[in-house]
Amino acid sequence: MRVVSFEGARGHRFWQLAFRNVGATCSLHGFSRVVLLGPKRRPITEGFKRETGFPQDTVILVRGKSAYVAFTYVDDAFCSADGFRAYRVRIFLPGTAGGFLLNPMRRNNRSPIYVCARSERIYPVTSEPGP
């Protein structure tokens, strides 16, 4: 897993991640599951809503190719109320278990991410960067 981009404008934060296939050919379809984790890596109950206005294509991954996952949220500084901090992000690709662990503090000035509750959105898995 690698971070392709992290963007922020007017309080919205957009993460784009690439997952490279290092095994046999596989396929992915639909949405990843994203879980925000608190300071002791305990799941935070707020969940990501699916952005259903985008095509959900089946991504065929041969060895060495990547699939892309994008998610977004509103930064806590722009909340009217109900914000929280997340220290890690666990991403589960569609149909998989175990997940990948992202440390957003490496990219975010060594501080946790601040999230407005109920602003989290996940996009379908794609074969190219972008939602």
Characterize the structure shown.
This protein is mostly beta strands. The chain has a single domain (2-122), classed as Immunoglobulin-like (Sandwich). 0% of the residues lie in helices and 44% in strands. The chain has strands at residues 2-9, 12-20, 26-28, 33-37, 49-50, 59-61, 66-74, 83-86, 88-92, 100-102, 113-116, 121-122. The strands form four sheets. The chain has a five-stranded mixed beta sheet, with no helix packed on it. Strands 4-9-10 form a three-stranded antiparallel beta sheet, with no helix packed on it. Strands 3-6 form a two-stranded antiparallel sheet. The radius of gyration is 14 Å and the shape is globular. The chain starts with a strand and ends in a 9-residue tail after the last strand. The model has no long low-confidence stretch (mean pLDDT 87).
Q: What is the gist of this entry?
A:
This protein is mainly β. It has strands spanning 2-9, 12-20, 26-28, 33-37, 49-50, 59-61, 66-74, 83-86, 88-92, 100-102, 113-116, 121-122.
Write the layout of secondary structure elements.
Layout: E1 2-9, E2 12-20, E3 26-28, E4 33-37, E5 49-50, E6 59-61, E7 66-74, E8 83-86, E9 88-92, E10 100-102, E11 113-116, E12 121-122
Parallel strand pairs: 5-12
Antiparallel strand pairs: 1-2, 2-7, 3-6, 4-9, 7-12, 8-11, 9-10
